[in-house]
Design a protein that fits this description.
Pfam families: TsaE. By secondary structure, this protein is of the alpha/beta class. Helix content is 21%, strand content 26%. Bound molecules: adenosine-5'-triphosphate and magnesium ion.
């Protein structure tokens, strides 16, 4: 009898999800909220208007936090407290940040343990926040649909059944 051995140090889990509409994007955010725990870090990347804030709105709905999630244009980060005793949502826009040193300056480590920390434009800037993180890259197509690429890094996400299909497995 053979046993499938999947070492926990295996390559990060990757998934791809199609989001045809902004409603589907928000629904994906709600699905991810159901999996999220305090301490989680989620990095969002993708071009201008890809749907990063829309996905974060779904996360906020699913986590049931206070306040509407909008593009934090003039602030770098905003805390949405939980209305239900769960993790808060910390929504960061790293667009204007120069790099990892500047993200250190906003002291996200103060809120991180009790929050789900979501960083728009986090790629290349915010990896240092956590060894375990969910990296999400949104690809925008000409017909306005999106493909959302999920990449789970670190042991936190072992055995978590992420939404979407495993690329290459149909
Ligand atoms: N399939 C889709 N998924 C997500 N958003 C969509 C989709 N189709 C259209 N949209 C629209 O795209 C617009 C841009 O969304 P959003 O503000 O979430 O992008 P963003 O990546 O946060 O942009 P920015 O780079 O400015 O931060 C919104 O008006 C949203 O309703
Ligand atoms: Mg945005």
């Amino acid at each position: 009898m053979s046993t499938d051995v999947v070492p926990h140090s295996a390559a990060p889990a990757v998934r791809a999800v199609t989001a045809a509409t902004d409603g589907a994007m928000r629904a994906l955010g709600r699905d991810l909220a159901a999996l999220a725990r305090a301490g989680d870090v989620i990095l969002l990347s993708g071009p201008l208007g890809a749907g990063k804030t829309t996905l974060t709105q779904g996360l906020g709905e699913g986590l049931r936090v206070r306040g509407s999630v909008t593009s934090p244009t003039f602030v770098i980060s905003r805390i949405h407290p939980s209305l239900v005793g769960g993790p808060d949502l910390v929504h960061v826009d790293a667009y204007r940040l120069g790099g990892p040193a500047e993200i250190d300056d906003i002291d996200l480590d103060m809120t991180q343990p009790d929050s789900v920390t979501v960083v728009e434009w986090g790629e290349g800037v915010a990896e240092g926040l956590a060894d375990d993180r969910l990296e999400i890259r949104i690809e925008r197509h000409h017909d306005d649909t999106r493909t959302v690429h999920l990449r789970a890094v670190g042991a936190r996400w072992n055995d978590i059944d992420l939404p979407g299909a495993q690329p290459g497995l149909g």
